[in-house]
Amino acid sequence: MGVFANSTDDREATGHEQVVFCQDKQTGLKAIIAIYSTALGPALGGTRFYPYETEEEALHDVLDLSRGMAYKNALAGLDLGGGKAVIWGDPDQIKAEPLLRAYGRFVESLGGRYYTACDVGTYVADMDHIARETRYVTGRSVQHGGAGDSSILTAWGVYQGMRAAAEHTWGTPSLAGRRVGVAGLGKVGKYLTGHLIEDGASVVATDVNEQALDWVRETYPQVDLVPDTDALITSDIDVYAPCALGGALNDDTVPVLRARIVAGAANNQLAHPGIEKMLADRGILYAPDYVVNAGGVIQVADEIEGFNFERAKLRATGIFQTTQRILRLADAEGVPPAVAADRLAELRMAEVGRLRTIRLG
């Protein structure tokens, strides 16, 4: 995978506008900031803090994630482009105030082309540290004028997308009586579990973190827990909700998946191009991840204009209608939902982005 095209038909090239490598040896900071597009406005996307095996793996992840953010922000109706950042390292070992503030200075150096927020391995308190060095940060604590935990509306949006997929499949937007498999009971999965139980669904779940399992045993004892994701996807479930890391839908999992619907919070769920067709061929309806998990970015984007939770929640509720539109378009054009979603996102980036070429004076 590379950024630059070697020819006019180089499909391996990502086409990113800017990729920045950031290093501060004293704090141990190694970060990559990737800006895919600013056609709709400044790039917005979270910072992932993760112990990648190699620099190449970190680069591949940030390039994929930043592209996904551009499409997510476009379909969420935001006037924001797509970007993402990764900090390479184990947050339990090296995360500290000096490192986060050093990273904040690199964000500031981009002059507002990139706004950061929380992601895997980063939290609201981290954003408050980063914000001491840069203006271009969202997902801050309520005490500092921010929205707080963005996973609240991420889970709400996933639930809305799942309801739209249920209506498309079974004729009703309710999950009552359906069995939903939740893979990952972290920041988003735990809230999603609550929405599903309130709606009358039964939930089977798994997580690699024992603390997360203890939490669900105490909070929702009616949830069935299974040892791992393999056991989850091969169990008798109606809906599969991947809520951990990406690549959950791959050549090994799709053939054995028993669910009729996939709708979850994880980013980049399709391991490679072609998986969307495998799902369609098996009669599994895939609600594109970057559509249904946009509630979090809607929440943090609302901070930029002065956060109002009810306004942000109303916008996130609109994920239901957006998902409906994509599923109808997919049927009308005879393409998988992921392809229909891409087309709508690219259309908005092209049409609205073109307006920026009109001179204002």
From TrEMBL:
It is an enzyme of class 1 (oxidoreductase). SUPFAM superfamilies: Aminoacid dehydrogenase-like, N-terminal domain, NAD(P)-binding Rossmann-fold domains. SMART domains: ELFV_dehydrog. Keywords: NAD, Nucleotide-binding, Oxidoreductase. The active site is at K84 (proton donor/acceptor). The lineage of its organism: Bacteria, Bacillati, Actinomycetota, Actinomycetes, Micromonosporales. Its EC number is 1.4.1.23. It comes from the Bacteria. The keyword Oxidoreductase applies. GO terms for biological process: amino acid metabolic process. This is Valine dehydrogenase (NAD+). GO terms for molecular function: nucleotide binding; valine dehydrogenase (NAD+) activity.
